[in-house]
Amino acid sequence: MTSAEISKDMPARPAAREADEGARLGLRLTLPAQLLVLFISVFPLLMQLYISLTDWSPLSGLGWPRAYELWNGFANYVDVAGDGRLWSALGRTALVMVVCVPVEFLLGLALATLFADSFPGKRVFYSILIMPMMVVPAVAGYMFYMLFQSGGPVNDILSSLLGMPVTVAWLSDPMLAMLAVMVADIWQWTPLMFLILLAGLVGVPEDQMKAATLLGASPWQKFRTIVLPRMKTIIIIALAIRVIECFKIFDTLFIMTGGGPGVATETISVYIYKITTQDLIWGYVAAIALVILLVLSVACVWAIKRMARKERAA
Amino acid sequence: MRRSPAFEAFRYAAILLACAITLVPILWMVSMAFKPIAEWQATGADLTWFPKEPTLDNFRYIFGESGSNLIVALDRTAAKPILSSLLSASLGTLIAMAAGTSAAYGLSRFGAGGNLPLALIQLRLFPPMAVMIPVMMMWSFLNLMDTWWGLALIYGIVTLPFAFWLMKTFFDDMPREIEEAALVEGCSRGRVFWRITLPMMRAPLASAALFVFILNWSDYLIALLLTTREWVTIPVYMASLSSSMTGQLYGAKAALGLIAAVPPVFLGIMIQRHLVRGLTFGALKQ
Fold it and tell me: How many CB atoms lie within 10 A of CB A85?
């Protein structure tokens, strides 16, 4: 029985009053969250928009409300388009994304496949394998900073594998520093892929798999025709989460290299951090931030609409 | 399903290799935390995976005892940063859970909230770095810079989406018969929420709160920008444990890293069952 049906038999609580009470309570309950979201979106956006049209900086000796005295129109936005360092940072962020996300996905999927049925010791191995994603990212960054020192354990392992002394200065070489940063990201976030994909794999019905085996399907065929279609949504969610988080990449990388050597590992968040705290050109930073927010908002709305349309079509 | 012995052998080999790769960085930091200063930078043949002379000096050092005269005494100990991390992450969790749980109930039962779910997804999508300038301006206007309660407020907002989506899926899953029975008894809707629903949801609430706490505890970037001296958190303090005078204080940093890493790993393994749900915004359940 639903609550509406119950209320019909209860003359003391007519359905209309009941619904009204629910609506009012619903409004009250969602109010704090609404206010917090407004607080963090409306004011910051307006302030950001305002100072992005000026040359204001915390060093300019003016309070930010008087930033209009440093009005420069759309000059900051014009600068954004021609900011080579910004575009390289964006390119590096994209590079981390296109290398790390697929590697994490494939490793995670392989591990999840190994964990699909039960075997002795499964729980212990599972707990060990998901540990990295719970390590504070800044601490993970420090772990890999130590590992990749030129006299550190990575070179030690390589030395014993290759049978000759290896003393590569990983974090001071532009290419190798990038590689080291990616290794750290893969170490920390493959477990997330593993966890999500395993949750999806467990939902695949075993009798279908058995039937396919009896019909002589190869493992790859079974994977492609039975497992993959069922896991499509899960795979999309897992990839989306990692792409979004990869775009924000900061903590681990910043502790390991600080964006260096030079600007070799400077991603978008590191670049914004640096011009915020070192160059202090806040009007310009606000312009960059707004452009990023705008692009991401459009992309987000587009993706959600597309997914909703596909769902309707299906 | 029966598997061939060859497959079993391959499976164990692959899993053991993955576990080894997973554990090496952790093991190295744990080992470093117990190494005396002489072993911090050992290389080549001197490099060992376990401390030759294990010591608690590194822990004593970050809490203010300068165990070795090779390194200068710290002008601040790790005690206050640990307190700052604890307080800000806890209050942040409280804010996120209070606002998130009530909003989730409002949406789950009464369809209230309008655009809130979408706004919360967007909040998660944006890089925090892209809103930090106005946040810094607002925080200094509100005198919240370099305070643990100022950090807690922004943590509460940043993790609100997780609290909201987690609790919404928990409320959606909860059978409604008991609530409805209470309504028939003449309880008001608000009373049902307080007296019936919330006590019944104690276990999910605890899991969600622990999950949100881990996220808050893990922050580095926000604390880096909003705290400067008085209330820096563990990761910010840790990064400051190196200077041109002392060089990298490897062992001390590792000891602090260990202290920072233990609570979330422990709590995370405790709430294993809900990790997938939390990380995928409730889109997936285990």
Answer: 12
Shortest CA distance to A171 belongs to which of A186, A151, A190, A188?
A: A151
Do the Cβ atoms of B129 and A248 come within 8 Å?
yes
Residue A82 token pair? 């021609």
Q: Assess contact for B22 and A132: CB atoms under 8 A.
A: yes
The DSSP result for B64-108, as a single string, is T----TTSPPPSS-SHHHHHHHHHHHHHHHHHHHHHHHHHHHHHH
Query: pTM here?
Result: 0.91
Q: What is the CA radius of gyration of chain B?
A: 24
For an interface test with B, the pick among A9, A10, A13, A25 (most B C-beta atoms closer than 10 Å) comes out as A25
The kind and range of the H/E element at B26 are helix B5-33
Q: Looking at beta carbons, which residues of chain A come within 8 Å of B14?
A: 110-111, 114
Domains of chain A: 84-134+176-280 (1.10.3720.10)
Peptide bond before residue A102 is cis, with ω within 30 degrees of 0:
no
pLDDT tens, chain B, 286 aa long = 556 888 889 999 999 999 999 999 999 999 999 998 888 887 777 788 888 888 888 898 888 876 555 567 777 888 999 999 999 999 999 999 999 999 999 998 888 888 888 888 888 888 888 889 999 999 999 999 999 999 999 999 999 999 999 999 999 988 888 888 888 888 888 888 888 899 989 989 999 999 999 999 999 999 999 998 899 999 999 988 876 666 788 888 999 999 999 999 989 988 888 888 888 877 776 5
Contact between chains at A23 and B112 (C-beta distance less than 8 A): yes
Instruction: Kindly identify which residue of chain A lies nearest to residue B10, measuring between CA atoms.
Output: A114
- Residues of A in Cβ contact (< 8 Å) with B192: none
CB distance from B27 to chain A under 8 Å? Answer: no
Rounded Cα–Cα distance for residues B167 and B279 (Å): 13
The alpha-helical segments, DSSP class H, found in B126-201 are 132-141, 148-158, 160-173, 177-184, 189-191, 198-200
Alpha carbons A105 and A192: distance in angstroms, whole number: 9
Are B252 and B195 in contact by the 8 Å Cβ rule? The answer is no
Alpha carbon B147 to chain centroid, angstroms: 19
Count contacts between A and B (CB, < 8 Å).
Answer: 291
Residue A72 neighbours by CB under 8 Å, 6+ apart: A53, A54, A55, A283
Neighbouring C-beta atoms of residue A305, cutoff 10 Å:
10
Cα–Cα distance for residue pair B286/A24, rounded to 1 Å: 34
- Residue B244 to residue A277: CA distance in whole angstroms: 20
Nearest by CB to residue B116, choosing from A10, A30, A51, is A30
Buried b vs exposed e over A42-60: b needs ≥16 C-beta within 10 Å?
eebeebbebbbbbbbbbeb
Contact: A241, B279; criterion CB under 8 Å: yes
